[in-house]
Amino acid sequence: MKKQVDWFMHKKNRLLWLIIPVLFLLVLFALPSTLFNTPYSFILLDKNGKLLQAKIATDGQWRFPHHAGVPDKFAKALVTFEDKRFYYHPGVDPLAFSRAVWLNIRQQKVVSGGSTLTMQVIRLSRNKPRNAWQKLLELFLSLRLELTCSKKEILELYTAHAPFGGNVVGLDAAAWRYFGRDAAQLSWGEAASLAILPNNPSIVRPGKNKAVLLNKRNKLLDELCARNIIDMQTCALAKLEPVPDKPLPLPELAPHLLNSLQGNKLKQLTPDKTLIQTTIDNRLQERVNEIVHRHSNVFSANGVNNAAAMIMEVETGHVLAYTGNVYRKNKPDLDPYVDVIPAPRSPGSTLKPLLYAAMLNDGLLLPHSLVADIPTQVAGYSPQNFDLGYDGAVPASKALARSLNIPAVRMLQQYRIERFYGLLQHLNITTLTKPAGHYGLSLILGGGENSMWELCGVYSSLARVLNHYPAYNARYNINDVHMPVVVPSSIQKKQPKWSELPDHFYLSAGSIYSTFNAMNEVMRPGEEMLWTQFNAAQKIAWKTGTSFGFRDGWAIGITPKYVVAVWVGNADGEGRPGLTGISTAAPVLFELFKLLPASSWFEIPYDDMQYVKTCSKSGFIAGDACNSTDSTLVPLSATRTAPCPFHQLVHLDATGRYRVNSDCESPSNMVHTGWFILPPAMEWYYKNHDPTYTTLPPWRKDCINPGSGNVMEMIYPKRSNSIYVPVELDGSTGKSVFEVAHRNRSAMVYWHLDDVYLGATKEIHKMGLSPSAGRHTLVLVDENGERLEHYFEVIGK
Question: Where are the alpha helices (DSSP H) in 90-231?
């Protein structure tokens, strides 16, 4: 018995002496933590995992990043062709290795390597010369790899790094380069063709030795059939499939998005990430590209070479389509590689709705309140409407719908530039990098710079706030205000409890709803309001913008579900005549909306709105003198506005043709009525546009004119303005045109400058003057003795 035990122990020791060196070698040849340190292509996928765009790796190879999973068809074809006992051996196949040694000795040259897929992974990762010593190392490292990784992981490593001919590495790149589709969509014939390539890619790669490739593929299909992996019918059909020819170009649906993400211009991901699944919808992206490209071909006839568009989903903030520019690779002089979407550019009038909403929110305006549209000069700044005309007075909603510049500037002057600048910062606008005073009142007309990315973020945030207002029981969630999302984040923001939600916001739900309603009233291009006669035409809140010098044409549209933005112009900033938002960007905008499902209009936020009695003519809250009223739904905050300032109680004689007072008529014989009266300057222009406007009746001759002091108003220059008198080309002093408005068009006005009589005007009250440098007093007297004194200063230099 003792001899048997000694024999066993002695045998065990002999086994240990054999095992210890093997274990030592396995430890000695430990694998690095990262098996492959190769550069990868930068890959962009859509929301369903479809390829949008790819950029070649820095070493010139099409090598897609490694990801989990190998398509079943390719896995079965590969294992059948390369390593039939892959799932059973420990990394080294003794039978295959012995067979290779025997064949090599018999042929007296290397005709078979006997490598398993595991050994090939090791060889690919090390990239060392092929000799006996390296083969031995590969053998030990393969055993070591099998201890670390599962068979599934080893197959994934091989599939991602195997050569497929030329500069194509990995199955994912090969499937797109040779068949133009994702690897998961490969047929049996295609999977078999690709399974053959890594074995000898230099000889049988597509486009070279096509007959050899076809023969090898068919043999593999026969073997798959013989092993009952596929049936005979599938095998026969797969053999009818053509083998791939020369490599195909990869999809180029979102080149600008890829570059901006890689450069982190959109602040959406870390720079070291190379495989990015985005929120883009592949099919929608393709159609948006086509529409933008088609319209751009028309614009190019006017020297307008670039255009961009973006579509995003309101609820999630996800970007569904991102066309950063018209991609013309063959015309590099047209700046096709510039991504306009994140680029700061003049936004034209696209910020006007935000000012309108802010004034409603702060109780400074009602939706249809009249605002002045008259010649305006503020500290030397003289804004002009696009048509160079004046309405005198216009409802605020119409001023927004028509994108009038002068009312917008006057509204911003009232609201204050610093407050508006702060609001834009609260809404996550970051492109305004200078202080508010740097931009001044021109900010509302595009005097600053904004990007399409941030404009879409702001308007989608407002739509989201409005959509969620009823669900939050008349409260607000600050998480609703965020920029667009094109790379979904795995980090979810914690939703606050209802009790934690504030009951106020930067812009109230009522002011946002009223603003979107005003934006919906804009006449669509080429339709002359006929679209409103069709029930199928969905309501869209939209706004156009045109930058100074006709450099940028904008259009942005909002519905409860989507935000669409379009920009048209030249990336180098060159302006072109006729480049306006309404004529270029707007038609593209509405064609893009046709790609999207129609949605209903925003739900009215009744908890933040109230019906009030307003004057029909002025849009203000009705006062005692208003004789015609409407019931208007306004934001709660707007109910704080003052009563109508344009209606006054006037006293007429029994005929109603003359004004009277108690000095010439008994109060019992007077007719007391409310009268719509605008200030003289507003009236001067307003009555030319509204034939129903009636000026105040004259005083009856037997009445003493009480001198209201409000029959004349200076249009230019305004009180205390400092002005320049122009110098002519010959060096002589020119003339500055002074203008005054009088309620009575036929009245005679007598002009006096510094007590010197200058002359008289009738109907058109303008006079060219050449006052010297310094302070002056201008006195205007009409034929009824009404007097207006105006002070101004002339700056010599």
Answer: 94-107, 117-126, 132-148, 151-161, 171-179, 188-196, 201-204, 210-226
